[in-house]
Automatic annotation (TrEMBL):
Residues 87-138 form the BRO1 domain. The lineage of its organism: Eukaryota, Metazoa, Chordata, Craniata, Vertebrata. It comes from Nothobranchius rachovii. PROSITE patterns: BRO1, REM_1. Keywords: Coiled coil. This is Rhophilin, Rho GTPase binding protein 2. The gene is RHPN2. GO terms for biological process: negative regulation of stress fiber assembly; signal transduction. PANTHER family: RHOPHILIN, RHOPHILIN-2-RELATED. Residues 2-76 form the REM-1 domain. SUPFAM superfamilies: HR1 repeat (SSF46585).
Length: 138
């Protein structure tokens, strides 16, 4: 697993950041063009600025549409891997075998919490007793 590899969510976030930067740039250009439009008295310059403003507004609409599309995309959050679907059949505890879970739980505690699993033997015994009493209610 490469630390430089990007997940789908990080790619989506990078695209959002790029679009936001482009939108900010266009907004600044629009503000500058509007200021120039207010400041000038030359009709030819006003026409050029108005034309440029129409291009800027069109670009802004396009960028906003792309951002809206990214914000509404849910594919990146869906599991697209093709896996075999196996139906799960619910079993009652009475239909299960007696299993000692203490050893896997001790390993899990050691791996994930760096604690000695043997110090939790009493709690694991309580869990096993509870499971057994559910399997064979009196």
């Amino acid at each position: 697993c490469s630390p430089n590899a990007q997940t789908g969510r990080s790619k989506l976030q990078n695209k959002r950041a790029t679009l936001n930067q482009q939108i900010i740039k266009q907004m600044r250009m629009r503000a500058g063009a509007e200021n120039l439009l207010k400041a000038t008295n030359n009709n030819k310059v006003k026409e050029m600025v108005l034309l440029e403003l129409s291009y800027i507004n069109a670009d802004l609409q396009r960028l906003m549409g792309q951002l809206e599309g990214l914000n509404s995309s849910m594919e990146v959050y869906q599991n697209t891997e093709e896996t075999a679907n196996i139906p799960l059949i619910a079993l009652g505890l009475k239909e299960t075998k007696e299993i000692d879970f203490s050893s896997p739980f001790k390993d899990f505690i050691l791996e994930h919490y760096s604690e000695d699993g043997r110090s939790f033997e009493e709690e694991l015994a309580d869990l096993m007793d509870l499971r057994q009493s559910c399997r064979t209610p009196s």
